Amino acid sequence: MSEDTPVLYCANHPNVETSLRCNKCNKPICPKCAVLTPTGYRCKECVKSQQKVFNTAEWYDYPLAFLIVGILSFLGSLLASVLGFWIIFIAAIIGMGIAEATRFLTRRRRSKTLFQIAAASAILGSLPLLLITLLNGNLLGLLWQGFYTFTITSTVYYRLRGINI
């Protein structure tokens, strides 16, 4: 830095000299604290506050999604136990149906926590039949139930996040 420019120190790391500032709040930040956005470098606090705008879920969406996904996942696991091998052809479709039902009932509100709760509920909903199949010693049935659980969990999570595969 030149002699006439004042020395700035990172707001989060007071021992680190910097010439970089957040382009939103103008706070001095070091390269470790800087987040590159399409409009320039921002501090982590400004990025987090911007991302919170996209969380639109209400408090009642969480238990609603948990119940709906859990019940539909359990019903799908009953179908998986009946279909066996053929579940590999429709497990993703069941997962998309569960995700779309959840999106409809939550009125397309979004939250990262909502997506994670839905995925956990998908696992918990299919877990009872997975455990029963395991205790019965039916290894082939366990394979299909495990495939079903993995497929619907990943499909529900990514569909609710808005990623279409």
- Unreliable parts: none
Hey, roughly how much beta strand do the residues contain? 5-15%
Domain tally: 2
Strand order of the largest sheet: 1-2
Question: What is the CA–CA distance across the termini?
Answer: 49 Å
Secondary structure tally: strands: 4
Features:
59% helix; 165 residues; 2 domains; two-stranded antiparallel sheet; mainly alpha; single chain
Outline the fold blueprint:
Blueprint: E1 8-9, E2 17-18, E3 34-37, E4 40-43, H1 44-51, H2 61-83, H3 87-105, H4 112-136, H5 139-161
Antiparallel strand pairs: 1-2, 3-4
Helix pairs in contact: 2-3, 2-4, 2-5, 3-5, 4-5
Explain how this protein is built:
The protein has 165 residues and is mainly alpha-helical. It has two domains: 8-52, no CATH class; 61-161, no CATH class. Helix content is 59%, strand content 7%. The protein contains five helices and four strands; from the N terminus they run E-E-E-E-H-H-H-H-H. It has helices spanning 44-51, 61-83, 87-105, 112-136, 139-161, and strands spanning 8-9, 17-18, 34-37, 40-43. A hairpin with a 7-residue loop joins strand 1 (8-9) and strand 2 (17-18). The longest helix is centred in the C-terminal third of the chain and has 25 residues, at 112-136.
